Sequence to fold (157 residues):
Amino acid sequence: MPQRALGQADASPVLELRWRRAADATSRLTSPPPPSRYDEDCYLPRACAVTAEHVTDLPFREELPAQLRPRLEELVRATGDGGDAITRLAGWKLGGRPTWHLSHPAVFSCGGCGTAMTLLFTVASDDETGVVVGRWGEPRVFTCPADHRHPFRADLH
Fold:
């Protein structure tokens, strides 16, 4: 059974997490499991190739060591970014640090146990990949590091 985020409206894209144990994943799925919702609203992704790239994911500016902050300010001026130039990366991101270009950093607590949740996945809207979500948003999925069965949190930043 897929796990859905708490509080998701039926009229919005529905995010589902389907966990597989590494021991059970002995071969590639030839056909992915069907979604619990059909494509009537054009929310299902199209098949595409994914190219993995390892990148260094730096913390938000307030979390940077003081000696690196002047270099960050130079980068922000050079790129014209709104200030989160080091965590707003093009493409889709597994893990790492969340972006905070619309608000100050926040901690999301697990609804099951109160543990600080960690970022699992980000879909970044950008020209480079041709992906645009809503009005150039970034859907993010946070999960409980203590227990993956606890409800996840979906956030649009």
Observations:
- The helical segments are 69-79.
- The two ends are 27 Å apart (CA to CA).
- The mean pLDDT is 78.
- Residues 21 and 89 are 29 Å apart (CA to CA).
